[in-house]
Amino acid sequence: MNCAQCGKALTRDEEGLSRKLINRGTKVFYCLDCLAQMNRTDRETLLGMIERFRQAGCTLFL
To answer: Is 3 contained in some domain?
Structure first.
């Protein structure tokens, strides 16, 4: 799967974060850089979110 904005190949974590931030049923996925730009944040903040979701047991990040 590729980022809908820049075309970069996505990781499972990027797919999971797209589902978490956009909508669990979304068919459109974004890389961390594009998600950061869309949400007016930085890549490091998003990586921290992924880790917190993983530690909380979110099934999108197993």
So the answer is: no
